[in-house]
Amino acid sequence: MNLKFWKSKPSPATTLPITAPYPAEKAESYDEIVGEGSIPLIVVEGFCGGAGNQLWGDFADHLNAGFEGGKKRKTLFVKVGPVSSLHDRACELFFTIRGGTVDYGEKHSEDHNHCRHGRVFRSGLYPQWSATKPLHFLGHSMGGTTITKMQDLIKEGFFGDEYHPDMVLSVNTISAPFRGTHAVYTLGEKPASAPDIRLFSVGSFIAMIVHFCMFFAPLLSEDPWDLLSEARSYSCKDISVVQFLKHVWKSGWAESEDIAPYDVTYQSVVTREKNGEGVVNKGTYYTSYATNMTVPDHESTSGFTPSVSHFLNFPLFILSRAMCSYDLTRVHPFPDFVHAIQKGKDRDELYKNDGVVPVFSQWHPLSCRETKCVHHRALTHPSDPVAGELVTGVWNVFTIEGATHASIVPRWTGSELQTTFFRGLGERLWFVEEKWTASRAA
After folding, report:
1. Which part of the chain is the Lipase-like C-terminal domain (predicted)?
2. Distances (CA, A) of 277 to 116, 280, 355, 364
3. What is the SS3 assignment for 138?
4. What share of the chain is helix, strand, coil (3-state, %, to 5)?
5. Residue 215: its pLDDT value, please?
6. Which of 78, 198, 219, 428 gives a 20 to 30 Å CA spacing to 101?
7. What is the DSSP string of 370-437?
8. 3-state SS, residue 320
9. Closest Cα partner for 90 from 22, 14, 144, 40?
10. What are the tens digits of pLDDT across the range 6-27?
11. DSSP letters along 259-284, please?
């Protein structure tokens, strides 16, 4: 059902009630945030994320381990729409940090039939953010692609000519679906007619839950039910019960191209790459961590299957198994980049996966021929001497074998993998800052 049937055309001038930033905390000056020289780390969660420190736990203690004199790095969780499209999430990320009214853009809002303006952040988490006062970013799953999408928008001047992509000092991603995932088709997206969703699939069930959360949002506590959906006007203050039930049965938003599931389809990736998205910025350090829970299996059609050691993580185990055996020819139109991978030396990486995202997709945007990248050996201890090899404008790719989509984050268990990972990440961020400081002094 076309969404326009249910709601009037949005007004570009529409504004929404003022809501405090998430997390609600006093805006601080740059010097107060940075402390003794450490640049803050902005954390962006993935699809259906938003629990923040409540779920991520004590990772920051290990991120700062080994540094004396109170030189601790501040970590800031940024709330973005858990099921929103990459474009909308990128806009929310930018304005949550800088402050002000979220502006999704006139053309985008008209094309996708929602209000141009969203939530108002009276004071950003880091209002002095600029190319001379940059930030580190860490994104899990779609949090990673949200960061690179935001940098693309900054590069094209979407937020204004006064902003520069060097505002992003480093991009660090874990299990990010840069080039999509066929898991989305397994869960309900129709491979030949995306963004249509199969009835009674996992995807349709999630869409129903989302509409319930949006409709009853004014009656619920802000977290974890806050979907940042004001621009959609789907709450009980905006639509009737009859309209709500019609949306539950046939969702115009869930079956649109302006929502998270569609943005991880291969069809969406083809469009974004044709539009020139994903090109590295020469002033930014890029690191991606690809996780893999599969092992060779000669009896499997793809040659891979999830390791039985992950059987207790049953949902990811089942989804990984389905991804290993998925017939990619069902995707229409069939993406040229997938065909190239099938016929090339990286064919195995198309089926290796972490239960959500194939390994090749976690590397970086674009193919290795179209970007600058260095693929390191499988990561066993994420620390130096690799840090000494990091340079700007190049993706450094690490593969973590025996890890699922959720092994490192978001749920903190205190595992050796988690503690080792964040200690290594902390070392890398300090190394990046030292190089950046030296380059400014030169």
Report:
1. 80-369
2. 22, 9, 26, 12
3. strand
4. 40, 15, 50
5. 87
6. 219
7. TS-EEEPPPPSS--TTGGGG--TT-EEEEEEET--TTSSSSS----HHHHHHHHHHHHHHHHHHHHHH
8. helix
9. 144
10. 233 333 333 333 333 333 334 4
11. BHHHHTSHHHHHHHHHTTTTPPPTT-
Q: What count of other Cβ atoms lies within 10 Å of the Cβ of residue 107?
A: 10
- Estimate to the nearest angstrom the gap between the alpha carbon of 325 and the chain centroid: 26
Chain position carrying tokens 């709500």: 244
Contact 362, 290 (CB under 8 A): yes
Q: How far is CA 378 from the centre of its chain?
A: 23
What pLDDT shows up at residue 380?
53
CB atoms within 10 A of CB 225: 15
Do residues 324 and 294 touch, judged by C-beta distance below 8 A?
A: yes
Angle between helices 336-343 and 266-274 (to 10 degrees): 100
Only one residue has tokens 């046939």, namely 250
Say if residues 137 and 287 touch (Cβ distance below 8 Å): no
| Structural domain spans, the chain | 16-178+276-292+354-441, 197-254
Looking at the DSSP assignment, which residues form a beta bridge with residue 137?
42, 171
Residue appearing with tokens 């972490």: 354
CATH topology of domain 16-178+276-292+354-441: Rossmann fold (3.40.50)
- 195-230 pLDDT, tens digit per residue, is 999 999 999 999 898 888 888 877 776 666 677 878
How far, in Å, are 134, 161, 301, 331, 374 from residue 88 at the CA level? Answer: 22, 20, 38, 26, 30
φ, ψ at 138 (rounded to 5°): -130, 125
Phi/psi of residue 398, nearest 5 degrees: -120, 140
Q: 36-50, 85-99, 212-226, 268-282: lowest mean pLDDT where?
A: 212-226
Q: What is the pTM of this model?
A: 0.89
Environment class of 66 (CB within 10 Å of its CB; exposed 0-12, middle 13-18, buried 19+): exposed
Alpha carbon separation from 213 to 16, 49, 236, 345, 429 (Å, rounded): 18, 14, 10, 45, 37
Cβ–Cβ < 8 Å for 126, 116: no
pLDDT score of 387? 59
In terms of Cα–Cα distance, which of 297, 299, 302 is closest to 182? 302
Q: Where are the alpha helices (DSSP H) in 25-81?
A: 30-34, 53-56, 59-63
Q: Which residues pair with 135 in a beta bridge?
A: 168
Dihedral sign, Cα of residue 171, residue 173, residue 176, residue 178: positive
Average pLDDT, the chain: 87
- Rounded average pLDDT over 227-238: 81
pLDDT tens profile 42-71: 999 999 888 888 889 999 999 988 665 557
